Amino acid sequence: MAPNNSNQAIDPRSGFCESNSIFYSKRKPTAHPPNPYLDVTTFISSRAHHGKVAFVDASTGRHLTFADLWRAVDSVTTFLSDTGVRKGHIILILSPNSIFVPVVCLAAMSLGAVITTANPLNTAREIAKQIADSKPVLAFTTRQLVPKLSESSNLLRIVLLDEQSKPVVENPRIVATLEEILKKQPSGNRRVRDRVNQDDTATLLYSSGTTGASKGVETSHKSFIALAQIFIGRFGLDEGEHRFICVVPMFHIYGLAYALALPASGTTAVILSKYDMHDMLSAIEKYRITNISIVPPILVALVNGADELRSRYDLSSLRTISCGGAPLSKEVIENVVERYPTVTILQAYGLTESTAVGASTNSLEESRRYGTVGLLSPNMEVKIVEPKTGEALSVNRTGEIWLRGPPIMKGYFGNAEATALTLDPEGWLKTGDLCYIDDDGFIFVVDRLKELIKYKGYQVPPAELEGLLLTHPEISDCAVIPFPDKEVGQYPMAYVVRKARSNLSESAVMDFVAGQVAPYKRIRRVAFIASIPKNQSGKILRKDLVQLATSKL
């Protein structure tokens, strides 16, 4: 975005404006649709689609052409309307990746209903907490996952997403199967539609905060429209033929972004229900995949096993690998270049609160600016703010990065206090990441003010695990930190202060947590300590503990 005052001079090299201390994107801006009454489904469906096949199930080969996709969306929309779903109602999706997840999303959002997603790995207790907060009127899930809704409200109606027709398990909460819904002809004349504004909420995705309380991020239709435009421009999807494979979970903004942005360009998306290296590479070979987006642990596995993998699979169609979650080292980038010479490695930076938009590298030359997450995305603005004083900083000075632009969230659902702490009155999103921007406008992430642990791309809030550990009768105090690991990125490690005369073991601590959380949140290392280091205000000095834990590596 350009500054409102044309007299304000922007440094063309860095994008920095001296008069207001704002960095502006150097990318070519996208033209946002001016009509305020536009839902993301209408935006996507109204675009010219040069492709024929929208989604393919990698395991079964079942596919949806674009004509199939929009017929399915119409059928589900009619069902939702006939079931009483209206604008503002919340629809839960609890499912592994599926070609039908985008169908449900697009149908619900066309009515102004709001999609919330849950991680299938979460426990029934964790899912029940999300349901209690968001209060969905309907849940789409699979037969296998129905038991995970057992602790939620008995009034929550369920639609089964399973593709194959099987006898429905006797459960009064199951009102339909998706197969039944798709067999019925949509009846548009009975459909009830409320007028949807671009500023209306489209999704409610839960982002784990450092407080331990999982917060629902409200993202608007405008944000997803902006995301789709940025996505299309970044990969040049309006030109040439592209085929993506979707590996990242769709319950996460990273995966959902691809599921919703790709149909806007007529691009084929091949869907993996869950990540498996063999399945992913087999699908790349079979469907001649050109683009893949992954997280660093998968990229490291591709690099380390390159010789064997290239001998077993034909990966010659692959043109780009985009990686998000953490900046890539020079070693990793150059290993990709050496072992996959026809592939361009790209990077991206974004948050759930920014609809996965923030910065990116769009070429190998940009990715070779080692340590960077790229240039600011189109139509976005940045401030680098000194955390203690609030001073806006210029180039090459480190501070918290604040983002502003169309993809930024509306706020946290039902949590005005958390919203006020994260979004300022001028629309700046305080990311919690410490960064600097160099003379050429490239963003470098230095550290995290937020303390989330990144395990295989999943976010694990330390405070949630600490709160759980403190319920153990033999633990008087504790702290959870990220422990670095080449394979998974980071995993949770606990420092525990035992109560007097306790002989609590490391395995007992790990087992206690494992029985109550999703697998990716499990404690995988325990150390006992006399006291937890804290500052004067009582905050845990995690950096001291990280230094202690890694000093013997």
From TrEMBL:
Gene3D superfamilies: 3.30.300.30, N-terminal domain of ligase-like. Pfam families: AMP-binding (PF00501), AMP-binding_C (PF13193). The gene is 4cl3. One of its GO terms (molecular function) is CoA-ligase activity. Keywords: ATP-binding, Ligase, Nucleotide-binding. PROSITE patterns: AMP_BINDING. Residues 464-539 form the AMP-binding enzyme C-terminal domain. InterPro entries: AMP-bd_C (IPR025110), AMP-bd_C_sf (IPR045851), AMP-binding_CS (IPR020845), AMP-dep_synth/lig_dom (IPR000873), ANL_N_sf (IPR042099). Residues 47-413 form the AMP-dependent synthetase/ligase domain. It comes from the Eukaryota. The keyword ATP-binding applies. GO terms for cellular component: peroxisome. PANTHER family: LONG-CHAIN-FATTY-ACID--COA LIGASE, PEROXISOMAL OPC-8:0-COA LIGASE 1. Belongs to the ATP-dependent AMP-binding enzyme family. SUPFAM superfamilies: Acetyl-CoA synthetase-like (SSF56801). This is 4-coumarate-CoA ligase 3.
